[in-house]
């Protein structure tokens, strides 16, 4: 009898056994995911897909007997007789070119959903040094004092508020004070006039009766501290995406830059619930655009990087106060820039952008080439390299091929140890 499980995974989550398998083989699956993603289009990467891992990583611990004599019956045996020693297959447990021969191959394949694929790929990535400057955006709910109520848990009784209300009620109803009753009692004992004594006793009885009618603490005086659920603020961040779309940027370069920002956008939106993205593209002038125009809108002209930095500075000044926002920026360009613009670019970067930014990354894209000849550094790369040597907190990388996008992205945003953070 053969039992084949053809049940599909639920639409929003995987089966328990599937999750247990992913946890057990997480390191192998992550390696397979990153290897598979290098040759894919980003849109295909985000859709998940089939991955394979070595069978050697699928072994589970088990108990087995050592030594002793065992008898086994092998059906269909026409080659061996009792007493023969069966040799181990050559080439491992995988499938080779011939049975028992050649190198084994990864023959354990399975399909990852989109969420599983992206979570495994982005698992060890994070935005560096997220500084929580001011709490402003809403992410979760918390408890906040909201006055008093006449009912509630005994643990929430407000003694101070209860005593204040009881005192106000006694004053309003003119409840006799104990001192007043004590004075009348003393006067009665000292009084020798029977008529006056009778009047004092009648007044004393009236005060005592009134004191009994107006208790020291009444149930209507009791107040409980009330709490209500309110939005709990969290840190907010804004990510500026700057890209050169001038005539010197070829379609291949733009494709590399677009892929980097697409991955960056997916990473930000999955890692942080409340992160605003600002897209700024530039030629010899800069403009803030929407995501569709940023990725697909045509543009031509010269190159002035200072226009993008000035546009970012103006946007920060008008909408994102540095005291309230964690500001991140990433710039993609082919490295070309007007020589006359270098001084202004360096000044804007060091005086306006870097002091208010938590992180600034520069990605220089180039043409795909199989030649090993190293091209000279571009004018923008040289400028940024000089600023970095002078202490400017810049992260810089070069990319020429699609397969380099993911390693560079991983390198820029990888999780750093506490020692590395302290050193930086």
TrEMBL record:
NCBIfam families: PRK05325.1-2. It comes from Bradyrhizobium erythrophlei. SUPFAM superfamilies: vWA-like (SSF53300). Belongs to the UPF0229 family. This is UPF0229 protein SAMN05444170_4939. Residues 84-106 are annotated as: Disordered. It comes from the Bacteria. HAMAP family: UPF0229 (MF_01232).
């Amino acid at each position: 009898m053969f039992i084949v499980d053809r049940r599909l995974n639920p639409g929003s989550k995987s089966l328990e056994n599937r999750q247990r398998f992913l946890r057990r083989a997480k390191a192998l699956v992550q390696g397979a995911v990153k290897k598979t993603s290098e040759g894919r289009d980003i849109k295909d990467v985000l859709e998940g897909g089939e991955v394979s891992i070595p069978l050697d990583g699928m072994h589970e611990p088990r108990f087995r007997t050592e030594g002793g004599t065992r008898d086994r019956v092998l059906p269909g045996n026409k080659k061996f007789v009792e007493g023969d020693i069966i040799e181990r297959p050559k080439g491992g447990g995988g499938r080779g070119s011939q049975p028992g021969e050649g190198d084994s191959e990864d023959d354990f394949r399975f399909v990852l959903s989109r969420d599983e694929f992206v979570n495994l790929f982005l698992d060890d990535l994070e935005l560096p040094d997220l500084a929580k400057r001011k709490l402003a955006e809403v992410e979760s709910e918390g408890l906040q004092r909201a006055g008093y109520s006449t009912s509630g848990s005994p643990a929430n009784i407000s003694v101070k508020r209860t005593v204040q209300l009881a005192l106000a009620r006694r004053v309003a109803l003119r409840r006799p004070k104990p001192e007043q009753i004590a004075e009348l009692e003393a006067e009665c004992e000292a009084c020798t006039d029977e008529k006056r004594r009778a009047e004092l006793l009648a007044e004393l009885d009236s005060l005592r009766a009134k004191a009994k009618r107006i208790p020291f603490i009444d149930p209507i005086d009791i107040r409980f501290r009330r709490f209500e659920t309110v939005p709990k603020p969290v840190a907010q961040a804004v990510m500026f995406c700057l890209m050169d779309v001038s005539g010197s940027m070829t379609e291949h370069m733009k494709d590399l830059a677009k892929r980097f920002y697409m991955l960056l956008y997916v990473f930000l939106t999955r890692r942080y619930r409340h992160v605003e993205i600002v897209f700024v593209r530039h030629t010899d002038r800069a403009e803030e655009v929407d995501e569709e125009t940023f990725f697909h809108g045509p543009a031509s002209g010269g190159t002035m990087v200072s226009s993008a930095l000035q546009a970012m500075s103006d946007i920060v000044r008008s909408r994102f106060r540095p005291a309230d926002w964690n500001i991140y920026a990433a710039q993609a360009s082919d490295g070309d820039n007007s020589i006359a613009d270098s001084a202004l670019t360096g000044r804007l970067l060091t005086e306006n952008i870097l002091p208010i930014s938590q992180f600034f990354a520069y990605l220089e894209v180039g043409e795909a080439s199989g030649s090993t000849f190293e091209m000279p550094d571009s004018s923008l790369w040289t400028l940024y390299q000089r600023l970095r040597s002078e202490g400017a907190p810049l992260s810089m990388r070069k990319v020429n091929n699609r397969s380099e996008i993911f390693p560079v992205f991983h390198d820029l945003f990888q999780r750093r140890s506490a020692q590395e953070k302290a050193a930086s």
